[in-house]
Amino acid sequence: MTNEKSVKIYRISGYFKQRRETTPFSKEYLALTQRNAKDKLFSQFGSKNRLKRSQIKIQSIMEITKDEITDPLIEKIIKNDFSIPVED
Predict the structure, then answer these.
(1) pLDDT digits (tens, 9 = 90+) for 35-62
(2) Which CATH class, in words, describes the domain spanning 9-67?
(3) Domain map of the chain by residue range?
């Protein structure tokens, strides 16, 4: 049996410390939960910037609407309404 769960759009804001620099960021992710979005952020920053989780400071995680999207890739994905089937 499959249950359909809706995908939400999350914007995560914060900063990361690399060497002696502090760099702010704001990223948008499609995810089922806030935890999934946070894990995607840690995974992406870890692989691209070689950051450890302790170097990334999250200031806010908020669910946003389709009208608030700033990421062009996510905007294209959202235009095609879809849902992810999940098996229990």
Answers:
(1) 999 999 999 998 888 888 989 999 999 9
(2) alpha beta
(3) 9-67
